[in-house]
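Table S2 (text version). Query chain:
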Amino acid sequence: MYSFQPSHSTAPARRHVQRAFQRVAVRLEGRLMLPTHDEYACVTMDMSPGDVRFLCAARPVAGQRIIAYLEHVGRIEGSVVKCTEDGFVISITATDRKREKLAAQLTWLANKHELGLPEDRRHDRLTPRKTQTEIHLEDGRSYACRIMDLSLSGAAITVDVRPNLGAPVRLGNMRGRVVRHFLEGVAIEFSTLQSRDALSEFL
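Corresponding C-alpha cell output:
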C-alpha cells in the first residue's frame, strides 16, 4: 500500500524539480487556468502532496502560476517547474495543513483499487454546451456565473460572490447548497440527484 512520506533519496536533486515526496500514478480529470485566464481540460498522470504532472494541451513556461480544479481533490495551485512533450509539472503551493489533507486524499486514491474500495465519484462529469447562467441566493439576489464542472449530483461555478458554506442556492432550476469555496467561485451539491433531462438546458 502507498503512504506519502518525504523522500530521503541521496541522489542529487534535479535542477528543475526538487521533490519532498515521491509521486504515484493517479489519474484525475479536471480543468486548469493559465495566468492569461485561458482554461484547458487536463488529466493528472502522477501526483504527490508537493507536485503534480499534468497531461494537457496548454503550453505554459517555467515559473508561470497555474490554478487547477481536480475531481476528488478540488482546487490546487502552483508554479510550472518542468515542461514535457505532452504537458508539464507544477510545484504545488500549499500550507502544511493543506499538504496533510492532500496526502490523505492521495493515499486513499492510490490504495482504493488495491483495497477493493468503491469509486468515490458516483456520477460522471457532463460537458455543458451552455455555460453562462445565474446563481440565485435565498434572499432573492441573483448573480451571473459560468459552469466549470457539471454532473448529476453537483456543479462547480465561477462567480464573484462567495455564499457561506451550506447556504441554499439555486442554479438554473436546480436547488442545492454550497459545499466548497475556491479562488474562482464555489462548488454546489444538488439537493436531489438530477436526471439528464433536468440538465437539458445546459447540455
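Notes on Table S2: Residues 7-18, 113-122 have pLDDT under 50 and may be disordered. The CA atoms of residues 67 and 73 lie 13 Å apart.
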